[in-house]
Prior knowledge:
The protein is an alpha+beta fold. The chain is built from four helices and four strands. It has a four-stranded antiparallel β-sheet. The relative contact order is 0.13.
Amino acid sequence: xxxxxxxxxxxxxxxxxxxxxxxxxxxxxxxxxxxxxxxxxxxxxxxxxxxxxxxxxxxxxxxxxxxxxxxxxxxxxxxxxxxxxxxxxxxxxxxxxxxxxxxxxxxxxxxxxxxxxxxxxxxxxxxxxxxxxxxxxxxxxxxxxxxxx
Length: 149
């Protein structure tokens, strides 16, 4: 579960978890998260991955950045960052970055995100092609098939 605007107790639990694991002060955690998200967005813009769109708010270039709280079933809530942008082909991309995992090895985390972007895009394009083919077959069946035969 991801919260955009968590309540006070959830925010406090997330901050406590982050502080314990990273040794940062509360304000430092928020500043670090914002700075890290801006760095990721700038890297995306440098490689010209996001394109202009009205779907997402342009916080850094064409990337929307939100500070979020990530709460999974078996873990305590932890702070995170959501980066949203659009790529060619009218495809929206959302990266939910867990701050504590990002702190462990930022370079490897970002490299892994970028490596996943290409295969995700190919899979979406493949699904869209199959859907168009299926839609065309249904349309032919409705207009030329059993109804007219």
